[in-house]
Amino acid sequence: MDDPFDSYPEIEEIKEELLNNGPAAAAEKAQEHLKKLNNIPLNIGITRESGSGKSTFVNAFRGIDNRDERAAPTGSVETTLEVIPYHHPNYPNVTLWDLPGIGTTNFPAYKYLEHVEFEKFDFFIIISDTRFRENDVKLAQEIQKMRKKFYFVRSKIDHNLWDEERSQREFNAERTLAQIRENCIQGLQKQGVDAPQVFLVSSFDLHLYDFHLLEETLERELPAHKRNALLLAMPNVNLEIINKKKEALQAKIKYLECMSALIASAPVPGLSVAIDLTCLVNAVIEYQVTFGLDSGSLQKLALSARVPVDDLKAVMKSPLAATEITKELIIKLLSLSVSGAALMAAEEGSRFIPIFGIPAAMALSFASTYNSLNTFLNMLADDAQRVFKKALGLNTSVCYHMVNGNMAFNGT
User: What's the pLDDT score for residue 343?
Assistant: First the structure.
């Protein structure tokens, strides 16, 4: 029978551990790789002076309402005088650091970066709700000297559009957005910032304006090993991010497959199936939370989108969405799948075959875990897309229109 690890050269280390030290050591090595993958740190520094919407942005990025007890405090006065970490509720390895506004300290720009320990940050986001000022530029220039990435976010764009619409006889949203963006870019260039990257954002409507462009830019410019950490922690702002999350979660399946196959090599009836069920439950819980299909996330989405939560649940087709994930539920779904039930039964039966039984059980366990995880992942990814469309009032596919060469949602 073919070696189930041959198609994964990137985990050659696990195979070597199997050959040298046996299945238990190899399974531990696979678990070690998975744990490392789940705990890659991503540290994001968010800075600006008071009233700019910095804390609201931190909360929105983490999918937390301003009224949540875990939220960064918001207000019209400067609430951040020290460096305060805010961990992502589902991915604690991703941390947004609420930094004191540079104008609120007595440090010059270069000393400010020492004060906030800039070395630990993967990139910085500099936020303003009006124009970017001299302190912002000085900070950006110091960050650039130290070879770190920084991005300018122009916040509260929804307020600007609303004000302009009330004051103009012939209001044009696209023209107004283009003017705001161009004014920001020109202002930064005049102060010596070369090719500034400016993104227009409303923290209350992340699916609008430039947030998806910010996500794409961060993804493109982050080191490869940090990208999945970013993607999984991102809020669902469009259909593409849901697809990217699905791909990131698929990348983890190979480690679970390997652990399943290695554990199946133990000549203990029922052990492999029991451990497989635990792995499946844990993986499906992660899928559910990452796609925002747990009950708490759906309630928050319903509130922000002003859509009854029952309407969101009505478009879901998977029995895994908006419910508690238990071993009993997973067993029930596997039993309804002819291929899933057959693979698990064949695995348990094959281990009693002399000589070839254990290798056959390993291969069958590998295939069973792969098929089950992919099926469950596809179910929840499809439901995430349906829920997203329903929340935005989209009947079939997401429609876009161009704003100054960038994509923006129609309607909502």
Answer: 47
Separation between Cα atoms, residue 286 and residue 290, nearest integer Å: 6
CA-to-CA dists, residue 220 to 133, 149, 275, angstroms: 27, 12, 37
User: Parallel, antiparallel, or unpaired: how do β-strands 42-47 and 123-128 relate?
Assistant: parallel
Among 69-83, 189-203, 249-263, the minimum mean pLDDT is found in: 69-83
Residue 365 has a pLDDT of: 56
With H, G, I as helix, E, B as strand and everything else as coil, classify residue 180: helix
CA–CA dist 232, 217 (Å, integer): 16
pLDDT in tens, 207-223: 889 999 999 999 999 99
- Which SS3 state, helix, strand or coil, does residue 393 take? coil
- Strands 400-403 and 42-47 come out as unpaired
Q: What is the b/e burial string over 82-108, where b = at least 16 CB atoms within 10 angstroms of the residue's CB? A: eebebebbbbeebbbbbbbbbeebeee
How does 242-266 read in b/e, with b if 16+ C-beta sit within 10 Å? bebbbebbeebbbbbbbbbbbbbbb
